[in-house]
Amino acid sequence: MDFVNKLGAGESVVGIIGLGYVGQPLMLAFADVGLRVLGFDINSQIVDSLNNGRSPIRHIEDDAIAGIRRDGLFEATTDFSRTAEADALIICVPTPLDRYREPDLSFIRNTLEAIAPHLRAGQLLSLESTTYPGTTREVVLPFVERAGLRVGEDFFVVYSPEREDPGNPDFTTRTIPKICGGVTPACLRAGAALYGRIIDEVVQVSSPEVAEMAKLLENIHRAVNIGLVNEMKIVADKMGLDIFEVINAAATKPFGFVPYYPGPGIGGHCIPIDPFYLTWKAREYDVHTRFIELAGEINTNMPRYVVSKIMEALNRQGKPMKGSRIMVLGVAYKKNVDDMRESPSLTIMKLVREAGAELFYSDPYIPELPKTRHYDFDLRSTPVTPETLAESDCVVLATDHDAFDYDLIEQHAPLIVDTRGRWPASEKVVKA
Predict the structure, then answer these.
(1) pLDDT, mean over the chain
(2) Is residue 40 a contact partner of residue 78, using CB atoms and an 8 Å limit?
(3) pLDDT tens, 124-135?
(4) What is the pLDDT of residues 53-87, one digit of tens each?
(5) Which of 340, 334, 311, 312 is nearest to 263 (CA)?
(6) Do the domains at 2-206 and 243-431 have one common CATH topology?
(7) Rounded to 5 degrees, what angle do the CA atoms 399, 402, 407 make?
(8) Does residue 378 come out as left (phi exceeding 0), alpha (psi in the -120 to 50 range) or beta?
(9) Where along the chain do its domains lie?
(10) Which DSSP symbol is given to 383?
(11) 202 and 177 in contact (C-beta within 8 Å)?
(12) Which of these is catalytic: 92, 180, 270, 394?
């Protein structure tokens, strides 16, 4: 197999399409084992930044990018005709939902349209973007076959879902096991050989569909359990119980229980989106995924629950929401990252503003709120100081970054709505 032999000799060029939170760790991992990497992105600012040795992602060090540039192991480009230079092509583009909450594969299709004229014999194409079972075979394969290439003979196609967890210091690209499913056995061997260069354990499965479904199951498992614990939070609150104390007590059981913690909703590029890929596909088989959809409904409604707790807390102090100064702490979707995709903080902020409050926020990793498909706040991060806290009518902890000074916040904020369980409930602190 020419692909595997070339890879084994260290002569392969790896092309990574989509230089974001998934693509950048991959490019560093392949360069780290001495393979030359070509990075592709439609965003010229990202390309220019990487070519100048700077990472646009906070948790990836500039020195790492500058190092592989200096060693001649990496180059970024917006010219997709250069995909012909790569022996392996890995697609890491977004797979959002459209306004009807149905799968939007436009980024995948646009990528395939761009690279199809340049596909050649001897290449491997891997899709890493999260999607519904059947995408690799139904969407990717036709582009390859129309190019006159014989899959499993002179061209190889696999699906290998990303498992990045931005900001998690306990796991690296190398140490997270990698699932891989090939269209044919030869495709699987090629895919396992590629990822085996950078991953300690490649988990080989029988088909792309198994790999696609496994990725969805991983994130649906989390979405459902988060939905459960968010519902338990509401029940515990009505009973006057601290759900975080309840969870920590239950977690002392050494078997049969995995702790999940509630919050203001769910965010990021996976958990709020991936379950709907399966519910959409399941309808093709006349299956109604009630359990998954119920969890999605609970999680989607959590920002409204948080806003109701803000209103309730202000009312206790004789203040209406309208005209109150509300300071939201943290707009990233989780702590210690600069990623605000699908962040529930944004929904909370939108609802607070619609209720007539004066809104401002603080996030050390997001100095300015960029315009998104759904939000346009035109706000910059406000520093957390005794003065800014004291001037607020209510401070809402939405994302519990370690960089926040929690003692300072508790001392100077007149009222706190805590969605992350950082403080015990008190006259000043309201759990949400």
Answers:
(1) 94
(2) yes
(3) 999 999 999 999
(4) 999 888 899 999 999 999 999 999 999 999 999 99
(5) 334
(6) yes
(7) 95
(8) left
(9) 2-206, 243-431
(10) P
(11) yes
(12) 270
C-alpha pair distances (Å), 195 with each of 28, 189, 406: 13, 10, 42
* Structural contact between residues 321 and 308, judged by C-beta atoms closer than 8 angstroms: no
3-state secondary structure of 141: helix
What is the CATH number assigned to the segment(s) 2-206?
3.40.50.720
Q: What are the C-alpha distances in Å from 14 to residues 147, 174, 176, 381?
A: 20, 16, 20, 39
Please tell me whether residue 220 adopts helix, strand or coil conformation: helix
Cβ atoms of 414 and 392 within 8 Å: the answer is yes
Residue 166 pLDDT = 78
Task: Based on the residue annotation, tell me whether 270 is a catalytic residue of this protein.
Answer: yes
User: How far is the CA of 25 from the CAs of 57, 166, 193, in angstroms?
Assistant: 10, 10, 18
Cβ atoms within 10 Å of 366's Cβ, excluding its own: 22
Tokens of 61: 């060090």
Write down the CATH number for the domain with range 243-431: 3.40.50.720
Residues whose CB falls within 8 Å of the CB of residue 30, separated by 6 or more in sequence, listed in order: 14, 16, 37, 197, 198
Number of residues written out for the chain: 432
pLDDT for 415: 98
Which of the residues in the chain have pLDDT under 50? none
